[in-house]
Specification:
The structure holds 3 protein chains of 3 kinds.
Chain A: H1 3-20, H2 30-41, H3 46-52, H4 56-85, H5 95-130, H6 138-160, H7 185-213, H8 226-258, H9 271-305, H10 312-325, H11 341-353, H12 355-371, H13 378-400, H14 403-409, H15 413-443, H16 449-475, H17 492-522, E1 552-553, H18 560-563, E2 570-571, E3 580-584, E4 591-596, H19 603-617, H20 623-627, H21 629-640
Antiparallel strand pairs in A: 1-2, 3-4
Helix pairs in contact in A: 4-5, 4-6, 4-17, 5-6, 5-7, 5-9, 5-15, 6-7, 6-19, 7-8, 8-9, 8-10, 9-12, 9-15, 10-12, 13-15, 13-16, 15-16, 16-17, 19-21
Chain B: H1 3-7, H2 12-24, H3 61-64, H4 68-80, H5 84-87, E1 102-103, H6 109-118, H7 133-146, E2 177-178
Parallel strand pairs in B: 1-2
Chain C: H1 15-48, H2 68-102, E1 108-115, E2 118-124, E3 132-135, E4 137-141, E5 146-152, E6 157-160, E7 168-170, E8 176-180, E9 186-192, E10 204-210, H3 212-223, H4 232-243, H5 245-249, E11 273-274, E12 279-280, H6 283-291, H7 293-296, H8 309-320
Parallel strand pairs in C: 1-5, 4-10
Antiparallel strand pairs in C: 1-2, 2-3, 5-8, 6-7, 6-9, 9-10, 11-12
Helix pairs in contact in C: 1-2, 4-8, 6-8
The chains are: A mainly alpha, B mainly alpha, C alpha+beta.
């Protein structure tokens, strides 16, 4: 046979093979389809399968549970600090130990709870919300979780072994440098940054690609849910901001390990270099924490006011402009450092400007409540609590954006009050609301409404009691990061109130956890759409099967389930014998490609262990960077090794 | 490069973290006056030229040796007490070099502490009345680190000042040996 | 002196502090009005449906429509927020320029060098023989603009006397400065406001603002060397201080003690506090501090020397003569 005939014969053989592939559609439907998809998509059984999973729902659940554990640990540290600060000149906790406590509290809350929990919720819900079966790059997703877990474990094991960091969560040089921070405590902190930064970057890449390429057909960018927009902006922000902190922490390790002089003024380095790089990351970081929460508020407000959020384009533009503006504010953390005053004016203006998009978002939510018919189950209560609390924090933020005001208020308890108002009011309240809201989707059961309401009021009132007095403590002259304060300055009353409030907040957290655990076993079984919501995650069962949707839905409006009138249109034709998702175009979401999804794999875990060993051992020796790169390279090569698909009768992009 | 560094490429890194950390990071900020467990005035007899008489190690050694906070405090005391006035950041001048492995009066931490406390012939003043035992031992820990004896995990790479020596975290570890005082 | 304003942002004891208060009140008022507007909008929005009426909700199939008044509301709200923020930014800028303009007129200068746990204060004079050095306490003549140069010997600290002025960081390798015009006689406390190590919490200082004549008298007394000890106990203390541990770190003018590691003690007993504002000056506190500084300020640089009782008595007796 000559070449041409051979090729034609091959083509015909492939066409016959293609006809034999089982795909979802009119021929394969209902229970039979579900059984086939279940077999294809479920992960292998046993401990190996549990470690090797690439199911975004499992990874998202792990993220959330781990982050909530770190929230509890960080909260216990806060309680210890508040016990010490309840009375003046108390001697319950030594200054060295207290410095470790607030370092661990800040680092845990910012790096191990706030960002990962948002990533975790996003990783769980975004593919469901976008109408697809999996995230993009599921193994990278698994890798990002393991890196996060190892970084958090390293930090907390170090703390429990009494070698934890004591330099503050912001670790200013030269205090964190080789002369003033002896031993390896600061290096452990700096490597925790590297772990969580790698994890966050990986998760950000996963989210960007998922949101831009795997949406259901017809879900144009203009029809995409607001939470997906928020996560898209956040993921891009992570990609641009995280490298700055990884850079400055690596430079710190370099100074401490091999004697470089990045932060040594005597050798023409600069202590302020640290602050610039850290806060270039640090300011976007707080918006990375806040913007997903605005997505939560949009979701809850829409569902419980029975109408989509007012002025969707305004909210989207507000999200994007907040994300961009957030990068131009960082010097407002450095107003006391003596940089040129004219430059400071720019940052004052920018810091005030960033309030405008957020104010517009708030208007849109309130307008939704105005125009809709609000109901008040627990998630909506948290939204109301969010408005009341976050706006106070935002306004104190406007106050400290002014240089003359900030020069008095900087590094006092006024700032502590401000950022807890925006972080707890602005991120934790919506988070508790959204966990209640999506609990049925995640677990298949409803949380207890009664316990939820008690928990909300405890949390809300406890928070105000704990943090409102801190404004006054700051105005009366109490600086931050102090293990005690003298009597006679009028600080006793605000501190005592804050300490009592802290325990009330702790009780609220316990109530929430108890509610979650109780409801996990005894909660009412949840139907697919218990709240009557409009977005696609509610078009499948609670909890979803491993393959998310029987058929890929097609979307024609911003509120697909409200406009479907019972029957959601779908596309058919995806394979059921191999894991496959449908890629669509970036803007118009027209169907584009069918993309194979990787099977469960241990390589992300192994690569994370290899990279983790590299990072941990490079705390002790620079040679670890060289020798530790070898196992990391081997693991990565094995992970990306091209695979033969056993039957590939059609061109497959893999 | 010490064997500890090589071993840390595996999970032993975490074990090293655990085991080595017990003493390395321990902060003894409640610096009670030392000397209660050891009678004052015990002086290791290392001023015989060329001789090394085996001596039991002072029990205080394990508190200060390889202890990062002590070495760090010693580094600050070294510059504050103007040790560089004679020893010139370790390179030696009027006083002998401290960064080499030759020790006239012994390079063990208790021997160095005695040298600082009691003074030595040929010009080393006695600091016993000027510094507490705790401070002397911190200085001894730092001086010992200048010659590359403690483990690399405990030493500081540089001070926040102009560079004057190679970073101690990179220099090879060298055991001390006693030299003949007749050799200058 | 009311205790509430000893270390309070409302101490209002200088021109800068008054300007701060005015600006703060303006900001607080505008922010309170904005907050009231938000909450009012929310409460009305939540309450209004309870009375029934047409809503643009999914149940009625109207969830793609919106109340047209809301569009006007959005535009109006944006305009109000933007205007308010612009006004606040202008107010802030004006206040900032006004505070900066006083900085050009200083008539007295001093340098504060921060160390971990204490403040080194040196008054600058055109004639070097008139320069004085003290620690942890600053005296200022009322009504005279003073520029304080800020340096650091180790890590980043922050100089903050809330009743008098905003804070400014002391950064190793840089020299910052702050200008204050005190307007009210009195005693004010300040604290380090940038985390600087184990004893950050107890790194305080005291500022005494006094009439000009009192200030000159204080300066002249500070220029004198230390008084010679009169009693035998004080003499024994003098011998101890100058020949033992103390002189290695502390300086007392007119004696052999000339250490620069710790605070200058020449006129130690004339100060109001011990250990950088940790305790008021007094005999009992002095005994406690000298005997065991680590138990009062754990992690401080001053070691616990372990004095014999008679040594302790003599040292305290001598230090009390250093007025």
């Amino acid at each position: 046979m000559n070449e041409l005939e051979r090729v034609k014969a091959e083509d015909e053989r492939l066409a016959r093979e293609r006809k034999k592939i089982a795909r979802d559609g009119p021929k394969l439907n209902g229970a039979k389809l579900e059984a086939r998809l279940e077999r294809t998509w479920r992960r292998p059984a046993g401990i190996v399968g549990w470690l090797a999973t690439v199911d975004h729902k499992e990874i998202g659940r792990r993220y959330i549970v781990t982050a909530l554990l770190f929230l509890a640990l960080g909260g216990v540290l806060a309680l210890a600090m508040r016990v010490q600060l309840a009375q003046p000149d108390a001697a319950l906790i030594s200054p060295g130990r207290y410095n470790e406590l607030f370092t661990m509290h800040g680092s845990t809350m910012m790096f191990l709870f706030a960002v990962p929990v948002m990533e975790g919720v996003a990783v769980f819900i975004i593919p469901l919300m976008l109408g697809t079966r999996s995230t993009a790059f599921p193994r990278l997703n698994a890798f990002s979780y393991y890196m996060y877990l190892f970084g958090g474990l390293m930090l907390w094991v170090a703390f429990l072994l009494n070698i934890g960091p004591d330099i503050g969560w912001f670790a200013y040089t030269p205090l964190s440098g080789p002369q003033f921070s002896a031993g390896k405590r600061a290096d452990i902190w700096a490597q925790m940054i590297t772990f969580t930064e790698v994890s966050a970057l990986a998760a950000a890449v996963v989210l960007v690609c998922t949101i831009l390429k795997t949406r259901a057909p017809g879900m144009t960018l203009a029809r995409m849910p607001l939470f997906a927009w928020a996560m898209l902006v956040v993921a891009v922000m992570i990609i641009f901001s995280m490298p700055a902190v990884a850079l400055c922490s690596s430079m710190l390790i370099s100074d401490r390990l091999i004697g470089t002089n990045f932060y040594n003024a005597a050798e023409h380095g600069d202590a302020l270099l640290w602050q610039h790089l850290f806060w270039f990351f640090g300011h976007p970081e707080v918006y990375i924490i806040f913007l997903p929460a605005t997505g939560f508020v949009s979701v809850i407000t829409e569902t419980f006011c029975r109408r989509p959020v007012f002025a969707y384009p305004v909210v989207v533009l507000a999200l994007i402009s907040t994300g961009i503006l957030a990068f131009g504010l960082w010097v407002h953390h450095m107003f006391a450092t003596g940089l040129p005053r004219v430059g400071y004016s720019f940052y004052t203006s920018a810091s005030m400007t960033v309030a405008i998009p957020t104010a517009l978002q708030i208007f849109c939510w309130l307008a939704t409540m105005w125009d809709g018919r609000p109901r008040f189950p627990v998630p909506m209560l948290y939204v109301v609590g969010f408005i009341i609390t976050f706006v106070i924090g935002g306004l104190t933020g406007v106050i400290i954006a002014s240089v003359p005001l900030d020069l008095q208020l900087h590094d006092t308890y006024f700032i502590v009050a401000h950022f807890h108002y925006v972080l707890i009011g602005g991120a934790v309240f919506p988070l508790l609301g959204i966990l209640t809201y999506w609990f049925p989707k995640i677990t298949g059961r409803m949380m207890s409404e009664t316990l939820g309401k008690i928990g909300f009021w405890t949390m809300f009132l406890g928070f105000q009691l704990a943090f409102f007095p801190m404004h006054f403590a700051g105005l009366l002259g109490m600086p931050r990061r102090v293990y005690t304060y003298p009597a006679g300055l009028g600080l006793e009353l605000p501190n005592m109130l804050s300490s009592i409030g802290a325990f009330v907040v702790a009780a609220a957290v316990v109530l929430f956890v108890v509610n979650g655990l109780y409801s996990l076993y005894r909660g009412a079984i949840a139907p697919p759409n218990p709240w009557g919501a409009s977005s696609l995650e509610w078009a499948t069962s609670s909890p979803p099967p491993p393959y998310n949707f029987e058929h890929i839905p097609v979307v024609e409006t911003r509120t697909p389930l409200w406009d479907a009138h019972g029957e959601l249109p779908v596309v058919t034709g995806l394979r059921v014998d191999e894991k496959e998702i449908l890629l669509t175009t970036v803007v118009a979401a027209a169907p584009d490609l069918r993309e194979p999804v990787p099977a469960a794999s241990l390589w992300p875990l192994i690569a994370a262990i290899a990279v983790g060993v590299l990072f941990v051992s490079s705390i002790f020796s620079p040679w670890a960077v060289v020798f530790g790169a070898i196992p990391a390279a081997i693991a990565t090569a094995a992970w990306f090794w091209p695979k033969e698909l056993k039957r590939h009768p059609e061109p497959v992009i893999s | 490069m010490s064997s500890r560094c090589r071993a840390s490429f595996t999970l032993l890194a975490l074990t090293a973290l655990a085991l080595g950390a017990c003493n390395r990071e321990e902060r003894h900020s409640r610096a009670k006056p030392m000397g209660e467990t050891v009678p004052a005035g015990v002086s290791p007899d290392t001023i015989w030229p060329g001789g090394t008489v085996a001596q039991t190690l002072d029990p205080r050694a394990k508190i200060y040796d390889n202890n990062a906070p002590a070495i760090s405090q010693g580094q600050q005391l070294f510059s504050q007490m103007n040790c560089s006035g004679c020893h010139s950041h370790g390179g030696g001048g009027m006083g002998p070099a401290l960064i080499d492995d030759e020790w006239r009066y012994g390079g063990r931490i208790d021997q160095i502490a005695t040298s600082i406390a009691e003074g030595r012939p040929n010009g080393m003043p006695s600091w016993r009345s000027k510094l507490t035992q705790d401070q002397i031992w911190q200085l001894a820990a730092y001086v010992r680190s200048m010659s590359g004896q403690p483990s690399k995990d405990a030493v500081s790479s540089r001070a926040e000042s102009m560079s004057n020596t190679a970073p101690q975290t990179l220099t090879p570890r060298e055991p001390a040996h006693t030299s003949d005082t007749a050799e200058q | 002196m009311s205790v509430q304003h000893y270390q309070s942002i409302f101490g209002n004891a200088s021109i800068e502090a008054r300007q701060f208060n005015t600006l703060f009140v303006i900001f607080l008022a505008v922010c309170a009005v904005m907050y009231a507007a938000v909450i009012a909008f929310m409460l009305v929005a939540l309450a209004r449906r309870r009375r029934g009426g047409r809503a643009n909700v999914m149940e009625d199939g109207r969830h793609h429509e919106s109340d047209p008044a809301l569009r006007t509301g959005l535009i109006g709200w944006s305009a109000v927020v933007a205007t308010g923020l612009v006004a606040l930014a202008i107010a802030s800028f004006v206040a900032d320029r006004s505070m900066a303009s006083t900085a050009a007129r200083e008539r007295l200068s001093l340098t504060v060098t921060a160390n971990q746990g204490w403040w080194d204060v040196q008054y600058i004079a055109s004639d070097n023989s008139k320069m004085i050095r003290t620690a942890n306490e600053i005296h200022l003549p009322v009504g005279v603009p003073v520029r304080i140069y800020l340096k650091s010997n180790d890590v980043i600290h922050s100089f903050w006397v809330p009743s008098l002025a905003g804070k400014q960081d002391l950064i190793p390798g840089r020299e910052n400065d702050i200008t204050i015009v005190p307007r009210k006689v009195g005693l004010y406390r300040g604290q380090c406001a940038e985390f600087c190590g184990t004893q950050h919490a107890k790194m305080a200082l005291v500022v005494q603002v006094e009439p000009y004549s009192d200030f000159i008298k204080w300066w002249e007394r500070q220029l004198q060397p230390a008084a010679a000890p009169a009693t035998p106990l004080a003499k024994a203390g003098y011998d101890f201080v100058t020949s033992r541990n103390c002189g290695a770190c502390h300086a007392i003018a007119g004696t052999p003690a000339s250490g620069t590691v710790g605070p200058d003690l020449t006129h130690f007993a004339s100060r109001r506090t011990i250990a950088a504002g940790s305790m008021p000056m007094g005999e009992g506190n002095l005994y406690g501090w000298i005997a065991d500084p680590q138990s009062i300020k754990p992690g401080t640089k001053m070691p616990t020397i372990g004095l014999e009782p008679n040594e302790l008595h003599s040292v305290v007796a001598y230090l009390e003569t250093l007025k």
